[in-house]
Design goal:
It contains five helices and no strands. The protein is mainly α. The protein starts with a helix and ends in a 5-residue tail after the last helix.
Length: 133
């Protein structure tokens, strides 16, 4: 009995409720937005430019733009996309809610990966061909 409960936990990580899935999507977007705003918020309350530049280097570094989309997509897939995708068919209204949240989750996956790739390719191109000579 115990091993079947462990398997059930691994196969169904979260509830297939569209409301819970939407809350995970909103929370992931909020954390990503706060991450990008962190240096500017620090600079608005302080005149220490060295710390501002250090924070900017950390927030906008290439490893952050690789890790954050991977982590956010993993969290969103585990707690929202997969449960919504694998949930059984429901009545028409619940199916519509599930479909809308599932499309939003899939759009997040697509857009976050494309933006991360765009940032990484742009950083590489800017490194080899700087704007000023």
């Amino acid at each position: 009995m115990l091993s079947s409960q462990r398997i059930a936990v691994l196969t169904c990580p979260a509830s297939s409720s569209p409301g819970k899935a939407l809350s995970v999507l909103v929370a992931v977007c909020a954390v990503l937005w706060l991450w990008t705003q962190w240096p500017d918020w620090y600079y608005s309350g302080s005149n220490d430019k060295e710390v501002y530049y250090l924070l900017s280097e950390v927030v906008y570094s290439w490893w952050a733009w690789v890790l954050l989309p991977l982590l956010s997509n993993g969290i969103l897939f585990w707690w929202s996309t997969w449960p919504l995708w694998s949930s059984p068919s429901l009545n028409a209204v619940a199916e519509l809610k599930r479909g809308v949240v599932l499309v939003l989750c899939l759009l997040f996956h697509l857009v976050s990966v494309l933006l991360a790739l765009f940032w990484i390719v742009g950083s590489i191109l800017f490194y080899f061909w700087p704007l000023s000579t």
